Amino acid sequence: MNYDVIVIGSGPGGYVTAIRASQLGLKTAVVEAENLGGICLNWGCIPTKALLKSAQVFEYINHAADYGIKVNGSEADFTSIIKRSRGVADGMSKGIQFLMKKNKIDVLNGWGKIKKGGVVEVKGTDGKTVEYTAKNTILATGARSRELPNLPQDGKKVIGYRQAMSLEKQPKSMVVVGSGAIGVEFAYFYNSLGTKVTIVEYLPNIVPVEDEDVSKALERSFKKSGITIMNNSSVESVDTSGELCKVNIKTTTGMQVIEAEVVLSAVGITPNIENIGLEEVGVKTDKGRVVVDNFYRTNVPGVFAIGDIVQGQALAHVASAEGIICVENIAGHHPEPLDYNNIPGCTYCTPEIASVGYTEKAAKEAGYEVKVGKFPFSASGKASAAGVKDGFVKVIFDAKYGEFLGCHMIGTNVTEMIAEAVVARKLETTGMEVLKAVHPHPTMSEAMMEATADAYGEVIHL
Ligand SMILES: Cc1cc2nc3c(=O)[nH]c(=O)nc-3n(C[C@H](O)[C@H](O)[C@H](O)COP(=O)(O)OP(=O)(O)OC[C@H]3O[C@@H](n4cnc5c(N)ncnc54)[C@H](O)[C@@H]3O)c2cc1C
C-alpha cells in the first residue's frame, strides 16, 4: 500500500494532521496502537474536564443556598462520576472514527515503526506485521506519565494520571506530587469530593509556570478549600508496605512524613520515542525529544515529528497546530512557522487559570519596561451576579510601544476569555486598541478592557 502521508499516532497531533493532509488531496493513513484520539481524548484533556465538571456541579449544589435555593442533601457517587468521564472519552474517540471515515483516511490498527526507504511497519495485536510505504511519515506518538526514580508507579498506591481518572474507589487521602496543570486539576477534583489532599511542589510556588500573582491567588483559594500545600518540598521516597503510603518529604525545615492512601505522581511527561525505529533510520533526538526544524522536518528526508515528542509546550492545541503546519508545508504551501510565544495555557480547576505571553517577571527579565494593569472580578457586575468574585485579569504591556506582552487570568470562565488576548497579540494590537474595543456588559470579559484601562491609568470601576 502506498500513501502520500502516514501518520503514526492519532492524538490531537496525529488525527488533525491526517484530516488536513486529506483535505490537501494527499492519500493518508493513520496508525494507532490504542484508541483513536490519543491521550487528549482518552486520558487527558477531555476525561479530566468531565471529572472537573462533576466536581463543579457538586460544589454548586453544596452552595445552592448562596443562590437562594434549598437542596436537601447531596452525595457524590464516585463510581458514576468516573463512568461518566469514561463515557465522554469513548464518545469522543468514536467521533474521531467518524472523522477518519468522512475524510477517507485509512486507520491502521497496531504498533507503527519506521524503517529505511519510507517503509512503515505496522504490528497488529495478533503479532502479524504488515509493511506500507509512504512518501512522508509523520511521527505523532505523544507521551506518557513521567516516572521519577524515587517515585516508581505501581499503578495502585503510587499512580499516574491514567489510574487517577479511573480509580474504582475514592481514596480518603491523596498526596499529589507536582503542581502543574495536571496536578492541580486532580487536587481540586479529589478535594471537592472530600478526599484529604496534600500537594507537594519542589518550586517556591504552585503552578510554577504561571505569573506569581496567579500562583499566589490559587494557593490562597486551594488552602481555603482545605488543600494542604507544601512548597519548596520534594518527595524523597514512598513506603508502600503498609495499608497507607508513608510519603517521606524533604522540606525547608527538615524531613516530614505524610500518610496517604494514594500518591499521584504528576511530575510531567516522557515522550514516546522508544521502539518506533528512530535509531534504525537515524533520526536525531535530543534530551528525549525528536529534533525538528520550523516545519517539523527531522534530519531524515521524508520523516517528520510533531506534538509531545518534539520541543515546545506539551499541549493538544500545540500538537494540532504543528501538524497542520507540517502537512501544509509537505503539500507545497507556505505556512507561517508557529509562534511559541503566543500559545495559551489553561488549567481547569476552580478557580480556572489562563495565560498567554510573558509573565511580569519574564518581561522584566527580557529587558522590557512594563505597564501592568489588573482588574479584580470582585469589581465586576457579572461576577457579583454570578457569585464568582474570586480572581482577576492581569495584563502586561511594553511601556514604550504599547506591545501586548502578556495576559494572566484566574477566575470563573477565564479559559474561555483568554482567546481574546491570543487574537489581540496575533494581530499585534497595542493596549489602546484593546481598551477602545467596546466589550459587552455585563460580562466577565469586561475585566480585560478594565485591566487594560488600569495599565493606562483610565480604569473606571475601581
Ligand atoms: C491528565 C492530562 C490532562 C491534560 N489536559 C490538557 C488540556 O486540558 N489541554 C491541553 O491542551 N492539553 C492537555 N493535556 C496534554 C495533551 O493531552 C497532550 O499535549 C496531547 O495529547 C499531545 O498530543 P499528541 O498528538 O502529541 O500525542 P498523544 O495525544 O499522546 O497521542 C499519541 C498517540 O500515539 C499512539 N502511539 C504511540 N506510539 C505508537 C506507535 N508506535 N504506533 C501506533 N500508535 C502509537 C498512542 O497510543 C496515542 O494514541 C493533558 C494531558 C494529560 C495527561
From TrEMBL:
GO terms for cellular component: cytoplasm. FAD binds at K49, G112, D308. Residues 343-451 form the Pyridine nucleotide-disulphide oxidoreductase dimerisation domain. Pfam families: Pyr_redox_2, Pyr_redox_dim. Binds 1 FAD per subunit. Its main location: cytoplasm. It is found in: Cytoplasm. This is Dihydrolipoyl dehydrogenase. Disulfide bonds join C40-C45. Its cofactor is FAD. One of its GO terms (molecular function) is flavin adenine dinucleotide binding. GO terms for biological process: 2-oxoglutarate metabolic process. The active site is at H441 (proton acceptor).
